[in-house]
Amino acid sequence: MNNFIKSNTAEERVQIAQVMAGDESVLHELDFQDVAISTIAVSTLRKAASAVMERFLPGSRPDKLTDSQAVAFFIDRVFWDQDSKGLILCADVATRSFCIPIPSDHWHMKTDLGTIQ
User: Fold this and answer.
1) Which phi and psi (to 5°) does residue 41 adopt?
2) Distance between CA atoms of 44 and 117, rounded to whole angstroms?
3) Closest alpha carbon to 25 in 80, 65, 93
């Protein structure tokens, strides 16, 4: 049953991201380790993570949230929108998914991905 719940959650994130991108958009899931985002995008993620924490995570300390924690908050699933060239980053919080778009001019693929085997 636990696998069923995880599967539904993953499917919901894909559906949420698809709605955000548009019905005709083609989404590709990426590994966040292959992506670099701008400082403006990090600032936006920090504000969004703080808002989600305040509303849905009682007892959390959003005022103590670091930039790296804010980024980590939104990397449960990462999608590249083929049409807009932007990213959609999704976070799972309790039984909900929250996704935030990153415009194409605020991210890029890392150039040094190390040795690929």
Assistant:
1) -65, -40
2) 35
3) 80
